[in-house]
Design goal:
This protein has 461 residues and is of the alpha+beta class. The chain is built from eleven helices and 17 strands.
Length: 461
């Protein structure tokens, strides 16, 4: 018994050690085991945030020639950027009026300061003595004058909502507090804010690998006989199973999942309905082609995935060849598209090249890819929208930068003689763009999920 207790203790110690490692091992049997306990998530989150600030901001501020970056938020009306800089235990919420100030020093190092009523974690040095200067805005003005920056960036942008976080009230108070000399030095932080949001560091890349593996595992489970009983289960049942599964793993979804159906009937494909439930609460039946749009949030990062499943008809052992070929064509569209990613090339240029090449091969493409990371629909280069295949003004004109992540989102239309209509294979897989090109965090769907026509599992939610 003593030996058994020692063995169990050693096993527990080994397991706990594994739990503390973000890239934990497939050897534990399931991607779900890579998810950390909440306390360890918070510690890792703060560690990654500190590394991001120290590794990214010196170069970004030098590249954009910004000497001081001022971020201001009031509680419950948070600037999207300031939320990405707050400690894990703040739960992305400002307190009263929170001011963060980042300065570029003469040696291109940076200083990080908080002019706030509360201590803002360990990353930002407290720079407001409320007893010496009761007026917070005056304290900010004095801080600016002390550092004498040539360019003062604030979060204003006509293109990216993410970089347009300063409210009208806060802007007025800021300008009223500054002398005319410094009012004239205020500029948009747009290139700095977008650079901060779009750039991933190695620790985030490793985290994204495990996150996407978890997202794929949830989809595979949701598109299985464990969840779907043909003739009984509705698309809405599957959607809420996804929500419950995510909650059980102590994760969040950044949008409500959707599950839609394409089947051999007279209903024509419609882009808008496909992303907002399609057949709604329709019952899943054999012969259906199911589609899911699903994303999770973990430690401030996001995934975004679309995949398909086929429900076998009685007597079928695998999906029909015409559906397998349809998926293969959509995979080919992915290859054409990601092959055109080149640093410095704009999203609109990549879109135009890819559509032209795909059509030359006989494909019927629609491409609508977006950056991914600290937001689901993130800041950075937009590469088409489903209703803007001629290019997207503004964020589509922004050039690609390496070390950025994207949801490779697109579809290819295929005429199915067997169904007497056109269907769309709608795929979305999360990928990273670096000096080597584009690669997927956890592979991509190369075969349809298969659901038997009769389930051997009890149907529970």
């Amino acid at each position: 018994m003593k030996k058994l207790a020692c063995l169990f203790g050693a096993l527990l110690l080994t397991t706990c050690s594994a739990l503390a490692t973000p890239a934990r091992t497939a050897a534990l049997g399931t991607p779900y085991n890579t998810l950390l306990p909440l306390r360890e998530r918070a510690a890792l989150y703060d560690d990654i945030l500190s590394k991001r600030v120290k590794q990214l901001l010196p170069d970004l501020m030098q590249r954009t020639n910004i000497d001081m970056w001022i971020l201001i938020s009031r509680e419950y009306n948070e600037d999207p950027v300031i939320k990405t800089m707050l400690p894990a235990t703040w739960l992305e919420t400002a307190r009263r009026t929170t001011m963060l100030v980042i300065t570029r020093e003469s040696d291109n190092s940076i200083g990080t300061y908080a002019i706030a009523p509360y201590k803002v974690g360990d990353l930002f040095e407290r720079a407001w003595d409320k007893k010496a200067q009761p007026d917070q805005w005056q304290a900010l003005s004095e801080f600016v004058a002390k550092h004498d920056p040539k360019q003062i960036a604030i979060n204003q942008s006509a293109i990216w909502a993410h970089a347009d976080g300063i409210t009208l009230t806060e802007h007025r108070k800021l300008m009223d507090s500054l002398s005319e000399k410094y009012q004239k030095r205020v500029v948009s932080s747009e290139p700095l804010a977008v650079g901060w949001l779009e750039t991933r560091i190695p620790e985030e890349v490793e985290l994204m690998k495990s996150m996407v593996a978890v997202a794929h595992a949830i989809i595979a489970e949701g598109f299985s006989e464990k969840v779907v009983t043909p003739g009984v289960t509705t698309t809405d049942d599957i959607v809420w199973w996804f929500r419950e599964k995510v909650a059980s793993l102590k994760l969040d979804t950044w949008f409500h999942p959707s599950v839609s159906i394409q089947r051999s009937d007279e209903k024509a494909f419609d882009h808008e309905s496909s992303f907002t439930a399609g057949y709604g609460k329709q019952t899943v039946i054999p012969g259906d082609l199911l589609h899911v749009d699903f994303g999770i949030t973990y430690m401030g990062l996001n995934t975004d995935t679309q995949q398909h499943a086929y429900v076998l008809r009685p007597g079928e052992r695998k999906p029909p060849a015409y559906l397998t070929e349809a998926l293969n064509k959509a995979n080919r569209l992915q290859d054409i598209f990601t092959g055109n990613f080149v640093a410095g090339r704009t999203g609109n240029e990549v879109l135009a090249l890819s559509l032209s090449e795909a059509k030359a091969e006989g494909l019927q493409p629609t491409i609508y890819t977006h950056p991914l990371g600290l937001h689901g629909h993130a800041a950075g280069t937009t590469l088409g929208m489903w209703d803007k295949q001629g290019g997207v003004p503004g964020d589509g004109d922004y050039p690609l930068h390496v070390n950025s992540a994207y949801s490779i989102e697109l579809n290819n239309a295929v005429e199915l003689e067997a169904w007497g209509k056109s269907i769309r294979i709608m795929l979305e897989e999360d990928a990273f763009f670096d000096a080597s090109g584009v690669w997927y965090f956890n592979g991509r769907q190369r075969a349809l999920h298969v659901i038997p026509s009769q389930s051997t599992f009890s149907h529970r939610f």
